[in-house]
Please model this.
Amino acid sequence: MNKKQKKMLARILITTAWMVVLSLLPLKAPLQFLLFLIPYFTIGYDILKKSWKGIRNKQVFDENFLMSVATIGAILLGDCKEGVAVMLFYQIGELFQSYAVGKSRKNISELMDIRPDYANIEVNGVLEKVDPDEVMTGSVIVVQPGEKIPIDGIILEGTTTLNTSALTGESLPRDASAGDEIISGCINMTGLIKVQTTREFGESTVSKILDLVENSSSKKSKSENFISKFARYYTPIVCYSALALAILPPLVRLFLGIDPAVGTWVYRALTFLVISCPCALVISIPLSFFAGIGGASKEGILIKGSNYLETLSQTKTVVFDKTGTMTQGVFEVSGIHHSDMEREKLLEYATLAECSSSHPISKSLQRAYGKPLDRSRVTEIEEISGNGVTAKVDGIFVAVGNAKLMKRLGVSYKDCHQAGTVVHIAVAGAYAGHILITDLLKPNAIEAVKSLRKSGMKRLVMLTGDSKAAADQAAKELQIQEVYSELLPSDKVAKVEELLSSKQKKEKLAFVGDGINDAPVLSRADIGIAMGALGSDAAIEAADIVLMDDDPLKIAKAIRISRKCIRIVYENIYFAIGVKIICLLLGAVGIANMWAAIFADVGVMIIAVLNAIRALFVKKL
Model:
């Protein structure tokens, strides 16, 4: 419990003790009235204060106003015990709600406890702790065992093991050594390392993730907006209804010559007010979404807002990018075909032409070549989106890319009959052969597709810029029947547009990509999910949901979390409104008393809050 909650608990215990003592004493009405004011103001002064502030700010109709009017009215009618008891139980409900919200916030804050407090900079052989915000790009920082990586960078010296569980939800540590890129938020477990920063702290991964989580509550779902509007109209209506209940029946009875029974009808009106408090809805619905986002974060799934959580629950079509999403994106050269040139020479031309690219295919060529690159030999590099690269190597024109590039340059090429990514090479305007590069499926890719089918997906589609043979081979292994290959980025957007127009109105389409090359498609889909997004700015910016590792099995897990959360939201809506309506009707006809009113308000709120925090707990697939 925090300090505020402890103070509230103390007030509840003091008030309860006062109530017990006063109930045992034989007190006359005037003295009873005065003595019961002590526990009433002890437990309810903050509610009265908030109510008065609302009246002054012309925001009268809220739960504080309803509770203040109901309890003051009960005391003035001589029901001192009930008046104090209603306020007491209301505050018990508030304490419980505060604890539940705090618990779910604590779960998220512990999970996201990745903000570094300091960075170590070595000055004259001595380590100095500085604010991460003060560290400039290109600086060298020292990270000791047990410390958090404060800023994204590249390891210059040292070997270590990194704990990435706060980012990915995975407990398996990762080894890292000199030359490896590391991101802020990880914990250095074993060795001392020196890191050259590649970004300022404000632009680092940890800052972007924290900003994403902190701002997620500002993007409200339709359900939350509905509850906000509902409460805005509902509260004034019940207040005026309670006023009518207190005035009209006595007037009618008086007109008919019957005892008006003013006290009875005022008591019913006050009971009506207590019952009408919309606390259960106003508190439990946002808490359900907050808990859902927290439960997802615990699994390494960052959801940017409850609106995206709600949209994800309605997903019936999932569209995948292939490379880096369903495959490992770790390419290996597996063959060189139709080349009269020496293998080493062809690889040298291809690798030098691709030397400025960070694409996995370029890296695979560099690994196969296995020698240092002299980039001064390469000039006039031009990258042609969706086609490949052209450059001059030692003054000779070299083109490296797919069949589209060869057609573009008017070079006759030969197809490859093996599955994989085919890289055609033309040297000095003549076809020089092609290099076959293969990419393996991710370990969980097949299981991920099965899991999505079990989750009720109607349509699974794979889009790729890769060759038809490689795409068909991957689709066959994954058992995905609908696959479209050899697509440019603009073709992927057009295909997603086509899929969006063919689905039913209430069904949603999710696109899963790597968040870098697929940013336009991620933005266009109903819901964009970035895979393998650890440290990717483009993923965090373009996607609605970011998976902090590259496990495709978490797509189905994210969908199940969202559906569980939405189910809990609607359970709370139906339960709270249903109980309220029944108790309001019973209160209006005099069957429900203040104790029933307390259950309809505080009891329903506690049950709804308990139900809401179930969204924090995620079942293993």
About this structure: The first strand starts at residue 119 and ends at 123.
